[in-house]
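User: Please predict structures.

Assistant: First:
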Amino acid sequence: MKNILLPVACFFLLVFPLCAQEDSLNLPLDKAFVFFREKVKANPESPYASYGLARCYFLSEDYRKAASLSKKFISHKTDYRNDFLLLYARSLLALGSQDKAIHVLSEAICEAPENVLFYYYRAIAYYKNGDVSRAINDVLTCTRLKETFSAAHLLLGCLLYEKNNDRRAAIPLYYALFGNAKAPWAAQATYMIYCLLAFRHENLVVPFREERLKIREVEDILACYCSSPAYKEWQPSVEHFVPSTTSYLLEVAGNLRSLASCYDAFFSSLVSSPHLVTFSYYLLTSFSLPEVQEWYKTHSQELSSFAEWIDRVIKE
């Protein structure tokens, strides 16, 4: 199994794969605008400068300018072509032009069938159009191409839930949380798991047509799910989360082969190990709960054994 502990920061590096000078990558947005505008003024045909400026437009939510500038360079055979294609499609998504985005991404996939981001954003486009089945197919392709792509696992959990309340919807969320327990979206993903396992579906606010049109990333879907007052008042309970997690994983672990091979391999190994409880506590690390901190202090041997198990799983 591939390394599933890739830091969540790597996802954001993939989302904006600007192959440029390191100093320009680290510039604040206002300074980046000045930097790339000067570069474009000096050489309007520079793909590096134009991509940098288009990216600035996108980050400042001027999606029309981002789309216009990106589209101009799509036909150019440069090292930035896939970057321009992706930025153009994402700009179209932000503008509510899902059908155009799907067309652009479908053509891009024909040229670069291993590019996981093309499938991911086409899945977002299908989702915004209400075509959940096609979105699931694309996001499953993402999980096969790159097991460490946490956004794809989060999106799959949302899609399985919305399609038919698949009992396995929590599995991709657990998988995404593993190695990303302190990610910005970790609390929302944990809350979604809680609602699924406790059958509190009324506490999840599913985005309908108007809300879907505003979605650009899977984090936007999670934010919508967690927009109810119940989430603001919620605090995870160790007494509930740990036993419900272990019980759920023991129940569904044998029914994952048809979902994704990475889930089948990982969770089959987990439930046959003595580390289910440790795994459950680990997922709660971002909440700074006294019970979790105390458990860590008194179960150092279990934690050490868990770390060794993780190391073996990574090498498989």
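Second:
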Amino acid sequence: MFIGPSGAGKTTLSYALSGGGGKASKTQMIGFAGDFIDTPGEYLEIPRFYKALFVTAQQADIVIMVIPADKCGVYLPDGIAQSFPRPVVGVVNKIDLVGANLSWAEAVLEKVGVKKPYYAVSARTGEGLSSLKLYIRSLGHKSI
């Protein structure tokens, strides 16, 4: 299950991990595609939607929290990652963009309660995806 703020690149990352192509569009509602659950960023940004995320996470094996390296100023509640009933994996996406701030994004992951290691990736270029895939496979997900 992918969670993160709007514009983090969750859908693009799910396409990159599955090996599928496709152009990502704005996710409007929770969507199930193969082994993945994609969620709108607003569900993590607006407290009234938290329950939907927590309930949906019951159907997932892991939660992948995606933070964009190019959007300093994202607000997420302290410790929210600890509310999920599944292991939460921290991913910093968009590391290929000019102005990407990896240390800021990692600080956000730490603040929201995601435990290290964190995976720095570019869903667009593929940089860092092999390490993330290996980690996900080590958790028992052989289809990635």
